[in-house]
Structure formats: C-alpha cells, structure tokens
Amino acid sequence: LPKGTQSFNAVRSMDMAYVDKTDIMYRMIKSCRLCFIARPPCFGKSLLLNALESLFSKGTEMFSGLAIEKLWTGKTFKVLHLDFSGIDSSSAESFERAAVSKLLLVAHHAGIIDREKPEYSRCGTIADLFREMAVRAEEQSMVLLIDEYDSPLRHSLQDREAFEAVSAHLRAFYSVVRQYEGRFRFIFVTGIMRFSNQIFGYGQSISDIGSDPEYGALLGFTEEEIRECFGEELRERTASLFHKSPGDVTHEETDRVVECLRRHCGGYCFDD
Known about the structure:
alpha/beta, 272 residues, 10% strand, single chain
C-alpha cells in the first residue's frame, strides 16, 4: 500500500496499489484548460499532480493497464510542477528567496530554462522570474501544475504584516500567470482552502471543480473503490477483528468494518 507516497512513478514501478482515477483525469483535461480543486490534507492532491506531470511529460509510459492508456493521444510538454508547501513565508523577503529558488530549480529540471543564465539568476521575485521564463516560451508549449497554492498564506496567518506582504507577492505572481496563460496547454492548481479570487484574480475563467459531481471521486476513495480495490486487505482486517480466518469472514462482518471506516473517515462528500 502506498501510504504517504506522493510519487506516481514510484507507485507504478514498485507495484503498489493504485486506484485507477485516470478516466476522470482524462475528462478533466479534455473539458477544462484551467482547473482548481480544494481538498483536506492527505487526500491525494500531490499524487494526482505527480500523475499529471508523468502523463504530460512522458505520455502513457507509466500508465500501462490504466483507463487513460487507451484514451490519451496527446503529445508531451515541458511541465512546470511548483509545490508551495514548505516555502518559508515568515516574511515577504524569506518567501521571495525560497519561491525564486524553488522555481529556478523546478524550471531548470524541466528543461524550460538554464538557471545559470543572467536573465534568470538576477530575478529577485517569483513574478519577475516567471515573466522572464514565459516571455521566451512558445504558445501552448508547457503545462503548469501548482500544489498547495495557499500554503504560504496559511503559514503566515498569525502575522498580519507577513500575511499581507506574502499575499501581495502571490497576487503579482498570478497576475503574470494570467498574462502568459496562453503559453500553457493546461494549468491545474490545488489547495486546502477554497478558491480565492483575491489571490488569483481569474474570475470565471478558471474552473473550480471541487464541488462538481463529475469530479467528486477524483480524489479520495469511494466505498465501492475500497471494496473492489482493497477487498483482500478489507477481509484480512475483518478477520483480525473477528478472530477468524479471511475465508470465514461474512458479508455482514465486512459491512460492519466498512461502517466503522465511514464513521472514522468522516464520510466526506464534496458534491453540491
């Protein structure tokens, strides 16, 4: 079981359990070009972005046997996968240093820029660096994935001055993203807090799919998926609780364990 694993390629190459959501992922990519979703921590947001990075950068190489293997015909792109979690946001200065350093590293690793070139290394803000990068890119040549857009805001909530300063820098960054959004084939943003137009400034142009029933099962597991994909583990756990062998477990006993899971996990449902 891939407990705590955020690397899609590791999950697939090490033969870990993976609940196939790729048909939903394909519908999302086909239906909208700018997407946002908010979910609680540990709901699989980072693994989803990692899977999207693998798909857009390498095609279906790691998707053998999954639904999207027969659906996907798209070409590959340079993928800018920016994770805002862990970035120091105790002040505007520390945020910019950490954000610029991370963007330089990620863009260099993706083959989008050479971080040693002076036009990039001299940039002091993430907005300036993103502009320098985007202005040289061709239309629809990249994919932008942003994980935990709200992490710097959440970590500076106790310091109003730092919060306002970090917010201003994030607004400047997303303003540049909007200006050069044509450079990207697909943009996907995740967070814990709901979509904030004060930060993004996108209005109706970005699709908040977090409460769309069509994508309700994109993250997390449904009860049907638990029964189908983790049936063996479910029987073993039920057998342990009822002190019997897995082959002797009854449907009623399994249902009782599923009900305990439902109560413990909160029965999350995000559909309107």
